[in-house]
Design brief:
Layout lengths: L2 E10 L7 E10 L6 H30 L10 H35 L6
Antiparallel strand pairs: 1-2
């Protein structure tokens, strides 16, 4: 009916130490004569829906595996550092979200879909 192949390559960024970039590529194919394009379009939409859940689960697992060590301190100085760390994590998450959106649009364009 339909095949979906996904390849994700994780690599460190060159411009920011400690950050990792996920290069995600997806190929969706169907060999059903006359319905190939419709099946591909369905596959792309299904992938977009599922990938957001996958990303949330992946981030959850990373947070559980690598908890913030600053949260165990109890001084007021550590609270300020924790707030600064939260702000930096939020900024990093926003950059990651922008990169993911950019990658989704690139994949959609590669499959002939309009940018959304």
């Amino acid at each position: 009916f339909m095949s979906c192949v996904e390849r994700v390559t994780y690599k460190p960024t060159e411009d920011e130490s400690g950050a990792t970039v996920a290069d995600r590529r997806v190929w969706i194919n169907s060999k059903i004569f006359g319905f190939g394009y419709a099946v591909q379009k369905f596959g792309i939409e299904r992938y977009r829906k599922n990938i957001s859940l996958t990303d949330q689960g992946f981030l959850f697992v990373l947070a559980k595996l690598f908890p913030n060590p600053l949260t165990h301190e109890s001084s007021s100085a550590s609270t300020a550092v924790t707030q600064d760390t939260k702000a930096r994590l939020y900024e990093t998450a926003q950059r990651a979200k922008l990169l993911l959106d950019k990658e989704k649009n690139r994949m959609a364009a590669a499959c002939g879909e309009p940018n959304t």
